[in-house]
Amino acid sequence: MEKPYVLGIDIGGQTAKCGIVNARGEVLAQTILVSNKHDDAPSFVEALAQTLKKLILDADLEGQIRGIGVGAPNGNYYTGEIKQAPNLSWAHEGNVPFAAMLSKAMDDMPVALTNDANAAAVGEMTYGAAKGLKNFIMITLGTGVGSGIVIDGKVLYGHDGFAGELGHTCAVRGGRRCGCGKLGCLEAYCSAIGVARTAVEWLDQHPEESSLLRLRENVTSKDVYEAAKAGDKMALEIFEYTGSILGRSFADFIAFSAPEAIVLFGGLARAKEFLTAPILEAMNDNVLPLWRDKVKLLYSSLSESDAAILGASALAWNL
Amino acid sequence: MEKPYVLGIDIGGQTAKCGIVNARGEVLAQTILVSNKHDDAPSFVEALAQTLKKLILDADLEGQIRGIGVGAPNGNYYTGEIKQAPNLSWAHEGNVPFAAMLSKAMDDMPVALTNDANAAAVGEMTYGAAKGLKNFIMITLGTGVGSGIVIDGKVLYGHDGFAGELGHTCAVRGGRRCGCGKLGCLEAYCSAIGVARTAVEWLDQHPEESSLLRLRENVTSKDVYEAAKAGDKMALEIFEYTGSILGRSFADFIAFSAPEAIVLFGGLARAKEFLTAPILEAMNDNVLPLWRDKVKLLYSSLSESDAAILGASALAWNL
Predict the structure, then answer these.
(1) In the sheet that A145-151 helps form, which strands lie side by side, from edge to edge?
(2) Quick check: B274 contacting A, CB < 8 Å?
(3) What topology is assigned to A5-122+305-318 in CATH?
């Protein structure tokens, strides 16, 4: 009989979320490991393997795990390596052959690795809002802006495994400096950090305008969301601005791969009541007539607490 | 024994070029039919079928043709239809089920149809500069700017068959009006017509600057090319400007599909001595560090007179 469970691991800058998942996309058991206390990859992998073995043991599922799916920043599906991930203390330099190391530490259990946005796309296709879709683009609006592109039911990895860096396409020519070093990236405007930067800029540029955001010392995207919910004019306009930048970028993405839908995921996607209208307006204004009003805008349907684990775990079904 | 020959047809606004091609990519016989003298699709298809039958008969190859590949503006691979092609007199309105009509007129010979840029990509992959490449983007720089995107050795058609309209991604926000109705499309700057528009604009904006281009009444991209060859400063700057717009757009395309190469084709690609340096500079300045100096810029290696027929014919090998 085929082994009926998979492990999903979502590795972030602070924590690694680990869970055991069944074929219906239910997380049966989960645990969290801190991921920023390790100086080198071997010690992190060793700690992770201990955590996973205990999770399996406690759930009484020894011998029933088919494989492990891992989502990690700069994870490469082809090579199984994590390549220079700035926010991982044990992987910020060079290439870490993570999939091979973890497989070895887990008694040769098969391991598939990809970046977090691709994992989210696979998760959404396997269990979520993109179920049944063969051509869609997943955009993750979190601390950064990530993307996972699905074509004919498969994640697009490209020649080198790094395809789908849509957060670093140019949204504003000669605009803000992005964390990657380039100017005007989509991520510099439409991530959680980007929204906060817009707020700080606008508060500074319009000292005459009153806003609830002036009451905050370090404005976050969450503050902007709460102010918008309270009807604050500037906060509402920030979401309109953010949505219109997203929408016109989406128009260009549509011209590339002609997807059936664009699926939004991540913390900032919670502001859908403020983002949907400006995104759709800018998207339809900037797309070729043949796609006007034809491409759906969807939001992730996975529960936020499970989504990261589910996305990573979905990779493991094909192992 | 398998039939050893295919027919390739490239349909343009003025003519349809037809040829018989063997597996080595040699055009064994060819002919041209005017394509703008027909008011409706049935009469054009009938004339085309007569032309093809005569071509086969004259080459003494009856019963040896495997199938027909057709490249046509707005051709849809999935449906076999030509959808509202503005420059085809018999197809400028509605959808013409061209593949089915031609197949019927050719005694049920199988017909594959796609747009001209996708056909060029298949041709380049089968016979030309992209031979052996599995992930590349073909950009056709002709009257317009077209594109054919190849992923894992297959043309990207997308959900609806119309993927790869990179000529209508935004190159200059709020820029020139494009033929499609949108503002600032890549095609409005980097097609033959776009280059001529740049020349007209610059001559007008810089009346103090002398240029060979002032001697022309209606400046064409060919005039700009010849002036650049003669060392004309403005003409050289026009190509620098055009190349840098192409290069920064290519940087965004790379972030999408992580190709091994970008392949240029079409009349304007003949100006490669003036375009290559500014394209590469802008491309590498605007791409994420991981792709800097990694993605090749190639030029079509197919002889210009055969390329259109070869591209279309290559589609037919999989029929």
Answers:
(1) A154-155, A145-151, A136-141, A261-265, A296-299
(2) no
(3) Nucleotidyltransferase; domain 5 (3.30.420)
